[in-house]
C-alpha cells in the first residue's frame, strides 16, 4: 500500500502531494521505502512520512518488525540541503530519528549505495543495520560547514567509541561497508538486493525474539582525552580557518559527559550555531555550483561523441599527467613523442604517477601492471592515432609548434574525432582555423599535476560544434574533473584573472609592502599560498617569459616588476634553483626571507620615485580581492565566463581559493558590491590606469543587484 492515498495536503500548495514514503507489510515485516529522487534526501515530506510510518508500525498487528529502505541506487544522501537557511519545518530530523529509535518493534535499516549525514543518522536510529557491499557510510556535514544535527555526534561514539567516531566526524569522511561492519557501525554485510537482505535479517531477529536495541540507550562512551586532543591538534592545522570541524569534536566530547537527551540538545545548540556562520553559506554554495557548473543550456539534448581511445601528444609533466588521469579512469591511451628516449622518459613519469596512486590506495598493483601493458603505448608516428576518438596536444607553448601538431592530427585522425589543445593562453580560435575541421577543435586546459588537480577549463572557440563541447564535458566527468566552460582570450578565465591580482600584488610591493607581508596576508585570508611563494614554486622564469611575451603590446602606463626581472637574471628562478623570492635550504620546510630581494625592490622604488608606505594586512587582502573581482566582472561581461559560478568553481578547483568562502564572486556578494566598488574608486584616485571599475560591477551596484543574480 502506498501512502499517496492518505497523503496530507501540502500547506503551501493546497493540493495533495504524492508521498515519497511508502509502507507495506510483507510476511510480518513492515517495509518502509523512501523514494525521493535523486538521492532520497530527507525533505519535509520524507520526515513526515517516516513519522507516520512509525505511528502505523506501532499499531499494526500484521507487523512484528520494520525494515527501512531507500529506493534506487542509494539509501539516503542526507538532510535536504536546499532547505538550509530557510525557516525550519516540522518534524525536525532529530525527532524523526528519535521516533524510529523509540519504536517498540525492532527496526532494521538496509543500506545500499550510501547513507550519508542525516541518512546515516536515520540508520543509527534503527536498531539493526545491514550494509550492502559497495555502500559507503559517513557523516560529511562538516564539509558543508555544519555538524551532524540528528544525533550523529551522540550515537556514533556510543556505538563505535570516541576514537573511531573522531576518525570519521571531523574529517567528514565515509567508510566502506566492510569497514563499517568491522567498526560496529553496521551489524552485518550482505550482497545482492537490499530488500531481500533486510527482510531476511528482520525475520531472523523476529524468530530469535530479539528486541529493540536503541543506540541512544547505550552507555556514554569513555572520555578519550588522547583521541580528543589529537583530533583538535589535527583539525586546527588541516583545513585551516574552518570552524565546523573543531565544533564537531566538541559535540563528540559532549557524548562522553552527558546522557543522550542532554547530548542531543548540546549537539542541536552547536548545529544551530554552525548554521548561522558565513562558512556554512560558502560551503553549501560550493556544493551546489560544483554540480551546476555541468549544466549548460546550450548542451540540452546534445549527445556527446563516444570516447574510449585517447591520444596525447607530448609526454612532459603535463602530457604525462593527462595520460595518467585517463589511464586511471579506464581509457586507452596512445602517447606521441618525438623519439624513443623522450617516449621512455614519458612512460617512466606515467609509471611513477600510477605508482603514487597505488601508494595512496587508489589502485592495486595488478591493475597498474595491466594498465601499463594493455591500455598504454607510446609511438613516434602520428599514424598511431588513426583510431583515436580524441587527441590532446600538450607540447611547447608556441603557436607555430602547435599548428604543426594540429596539421598532423588533421592528416591522420578519423572523421568525427575531437582535436584538443592543452594550451594555457594561446588563441584556440587561431589553432582551430589552421585545420580543415575547425568545428572539431576545442581547448582542454588541464592544471598541473593533471592527474591530481580537479579543474579543467573547456575553452570554446566560436567554430566548435556543440557535440564537441558536450564531449569535453563528458570526458571531464569520466576523468573525475570539474569542467568549466571558458571563452577564448589570453589566459581564459583563471590565468587571465590571476594576472590581474598578481599585478595588484606587485603594485603593493612597489608602494611599500614587502612580498613576504603580501604572502602572509593572503594566506591569512585563506589562500594556500601567497603570490610570491607561488611564483617560486612555479618558477620565476615562467613569469619572466610571460612579461617578455607581453612586452610588445604593453601599455606604457603599466608597471613592470623590474625586481622580478632582476631575480630572473641573477639565476634565482625559485625553488628549483634554491633561490627566488625566498632562500630554500636542503632539508628545511618552506623558504627563508632574503634581505637581498628587499634591496632589489628598494632600487625599483627609487627608480619610480616611490616613497614606501605601510600597508595593513587587511588592505592587502582587500586590494588583492578587489583586483580579482574587478577583472572577473570584465571576464563575465565579455562572455569568457558565462556565469559568476563558473569563476567561483575555477578558483575553488584550480587556484586553491578557500572553499569556506564559497568562491570569489560569492565572497564579493557577501562583502557587498557597493563597498567593493567604493574601494576600487578610492584606489583609482591614486592610479586610474590599473583601477578602472568594471562596467558590470558598476551596473550591478546601480541596480542594487549582485553576482548571484547572474547565475541563472
Ligand atoms: C545533513 O544531513 C544534516 C543532518 O546531520 C542534520 C539535519 C538536521 N540535499 O552529487 P550528485 C542533489 S547535511 C539536496 O550529482 P551522485 C544534487 O544537488 C547533508 N540535494 O549525485 C544534485 O542535484 P542536481 C549531508 C542533494 O550520485 C543531485 O542531487 N549529506 C543532496 O554523484 C545529484 O547529486 C551530504 O553532504 C542533499 N543532501 O552523488 C551528502 N545531495 O541534479 C551530499 C545531492 O539538480 N551529497 N543532492 O544538480 C552527495 O555527496 C552526493 O550527492 C551523493 C550522490 C553521494 C549522495
TrEMBL record:
UniProt entry tagged with the keyword rRNA processing: no
Domain of life: Bacteria
Stretch forming the signal peptide: none
Swiss-Prot/TrEMBL GO biological process terms: fatty acid beta-oxidation
Pathway membership: Lipid metabolism; fatty acid beta-oxidation
Catalytic reaction equation(s): a (3S)-3-hydroxyacyl-CoA + NAD(+) = a 3-oxoacyl-CoA + NADH + H(+)
Main location: other
Entry keyword set: Fatty acid metabolism, Isomerase, Lipid degradation, Lipid metabolism, Lyase, Multifunctional enzyme, NAD, Oxidoreductase, Peroxisome
One example GO MF annotation: enoyl-CoA hydratase activity
Pfam families the record matches: 3HCDH, 3HCDH_N, ECH_1
InterPro entries (alphabetical): 3-OHacyl-CoA_DH_NAD-bd (IPR006176), 3HC_DH_C (IPR006108), 6-PGluconate_DH-like_C_sf (IPR008927), ClpP/crotonase-like_dom_sf (IPR029045), Enoyl-CoA_hyd/isom_CS (IPR018376), Enoyl-CoA_hydra/iso (IPR001753), NAD(P)-bd_dom_sf (IPR036291)
Domain 3-hydroxyacyl-CoA dehydrogenase C-terminal residues, every copy: 491-584, 622-704
UniProt KW Cell membrane keyword: no
Ranges for domain 3-hydroxyacyl-CoA dehydrogenase NAD binding: 310-486
Cellular compartments annotated: Peroxisome
Family label: In the N-terminal section; belongs to the enoyl-CoA hydratase/isomerase family.
Protein name, UniProt field: 3-hydroxyacyl-CoA dehydrogenase
Organism: Roseivivax halodurans JCM 10272
Amino acid at each position: 500500500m502506498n501512502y499517496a492515498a492518505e497523503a496530507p495536503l501540502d500547506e503551501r500548495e493546497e493540493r495533495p502531494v504524492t508521498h515519497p514514503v511508502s509502507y507495506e507489510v510483507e510476511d510480518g515485516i513492515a517495509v518502509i521505502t523512501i523514494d525521493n529522487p535523486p538521492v532520497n534526501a530527507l525533505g519535509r515530506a520524507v520526515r513526515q512520512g517516516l513519522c507516520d510510518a512509525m505511528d502505523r508500525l506501532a499499531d499494526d498487528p500484521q507487523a512484528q518488525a520494520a525494515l527501512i529502505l531507500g529506493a534506487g541506487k542509494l539509501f539516503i544522501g542526507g538532510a535536504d540541503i536546499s532547505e538550509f537557511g530557510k525557516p525550519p519545518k516540522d518534524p525536525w530530523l532529530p525527532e524523526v530519528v528519535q521516533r524510529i529509535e523509540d519504536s517498540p518493534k525492532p527496526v532494521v535499516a538496509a543500506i545500499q549505495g550510501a547513507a550519508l549525514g542525516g541518512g546515516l543518522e536515520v540508520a543509527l536510529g534503527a536498531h539493526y543495520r545491514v550494509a550492502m557491499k559497495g555502500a559507503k557510510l559517513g557523516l560529511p556535514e562538516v564539509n558543508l560547514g555544519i555538524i551532524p544535527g540528528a544525533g550523529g555526534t551522540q550515537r556514533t561514539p556510543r556505538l563505535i567509541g570516541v576514537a573511531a567516531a573522531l576518525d570519521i566526524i571531523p574529517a567528514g569522511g565515509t567508510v566502506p561497508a566492510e569497514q563499517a561492519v568491522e567498526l560496529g557501525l553496521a551489524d552485518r554485510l550482505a550482497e545482492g538486493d537490499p530488500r531481500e537482505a533486510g527482510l531476511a535479517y528482520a525475520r531472523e531477529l523476529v524468530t530469535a525474539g530479539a528486541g529493540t536495541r536503541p543506540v541512544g540507550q547505550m552507555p556514554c562512551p569513555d572520555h578519550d582525552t588522547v583521541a580528543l586532543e589529537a583530533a583538535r591538534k589535527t583539525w586546527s592545522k588541516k583545513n585551516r580557518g574552518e570552524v565546523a570541524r573543531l565544533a564537531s569534536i566538541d559535540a563528540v566530547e559532549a557524548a562522553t559527559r552527558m546522557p543522550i537527551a542532554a547530548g542531543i540538545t548540546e549537539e542541536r545548540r552547536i548545529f544551530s550555531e554552525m548554521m548561522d556562520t558565513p562558512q556554512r553559506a560558502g560551503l553549501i554554495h560550493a556544493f551546489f555550483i560544483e554540480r551546476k557548473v555541468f549544466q549548460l543550456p546550450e548542451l540540452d539534448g546534445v549527445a556527446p561523441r563516444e570516447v574510449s581511445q585517447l591520444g596525447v601528444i607530448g609526454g612532459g609533466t603535463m602530457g604525462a599527467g593527462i595520460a595518467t588521469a585517463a589511464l586511471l579512469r579506464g581509457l586507452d591511451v596512445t602517447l606521441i613523442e618525438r623519439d624513443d628516449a623522450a617516449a621512455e622518459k614519458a612512460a617512466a613519469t606515467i609509471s611513477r604517477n600510477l605508482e603514487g596512486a597505488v601508494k595512496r590506495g587508489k589502485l592495486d598493483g595488478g591493475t597498474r601492471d595491466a594498465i601499463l601493458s594493455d591500455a598504454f603505448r607510446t609511438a613516434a608516428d602520428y599514424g598511431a592515432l588513426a583510431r583515436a576518438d580524441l587527441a590532446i596536444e600538450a607540447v611547447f607553448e608556441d603557436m607555430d609548434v602547435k599548428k604543426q601538431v594540429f596539421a598532423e592530427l588533421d592528416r591522420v585522425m578519423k572523421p568525427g574525432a575531437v582535436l584538443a589543445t592543452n594550451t594555457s593562453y594561446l588563441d584556440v580560435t587561431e589553432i582551430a582555423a589552421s585545420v580543415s575541421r575547425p568545428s572539431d577543435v576545442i581547448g582542454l586546459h588541464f592544471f598541473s599535476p593533471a592527474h591530481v588537480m580537479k579543474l579543467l577549463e573547456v575553452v570554446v572557440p566560436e567554430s566548435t560544434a556543440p557535440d564537441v563541447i558536450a564531449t569535453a564535458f563528458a570526458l571531464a566527468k569520466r576523468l573525475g574533473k570539474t569542467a568549466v566552460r571558458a571563452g577564448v582570450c589570453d589566459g581564459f578565465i583563471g590565468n587571465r584573472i590571476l594576472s590581474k591580482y598578481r599585478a595588484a600584488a606587485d603594485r603593493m610591493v612597489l608602494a611599500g609592502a614587502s612580498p613576504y607581508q603580501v604572502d602572509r596576508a593572503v594566506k591569512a585570508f585563506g589562500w594556500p599560498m601567497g603570490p610570491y611563494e607561488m611564483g617560486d614554486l612555479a618558477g620565476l622564469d615562467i613569469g619572466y617569459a610571460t612579461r617578455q611575451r607581453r612586452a610588445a603590446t604593453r601599455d606604457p602606463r603599466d608597471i613592470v616588476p623590474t625586481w622580478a626581472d632582476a631575480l630572473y637574471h641573477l639565476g634565482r628562478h625559485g625553488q628549483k634553483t634554491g633561490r627566488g623570492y625566498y632562500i630554500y635550504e636542503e632539508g628545511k620546510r618552506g623558504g627563508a626571507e632574503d634581505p637581498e630581494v628587499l634591496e632589489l625592490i628598494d632600487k625599483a622604488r627609487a627608480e619610480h620615485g616611490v616613497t614606501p608606505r605601510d600597508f595593513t594586512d587587511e588592505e592587502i587582502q582587500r586590494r588583492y580581492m578587489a583586483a580579482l573581482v574587478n577583472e572577473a566582472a570584465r571576464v563575465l561581461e565579455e562572455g569568457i565566463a558565462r556565469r559568476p559560478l563558473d569563476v567561483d568553481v575555477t578558483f575553488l578547483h584550480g587556484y586553491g581559493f578557500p572553499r569556506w568562502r564559497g568562491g570569489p564572486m560569492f565572497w564579493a556578494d557577501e562583502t557587498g558590491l557597493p563597498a567593493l566598488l567604493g574601494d576600487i574608486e578610492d584606489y583609482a584616485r591614486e592610479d586610474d590606469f590599473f583601477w578602472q571599475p568594471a562596467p558590470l560591477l558598476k551596473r550591478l551596484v546601480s541596480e542594487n543587484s549582485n553576482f548571484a543574480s547572474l547565475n541563472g
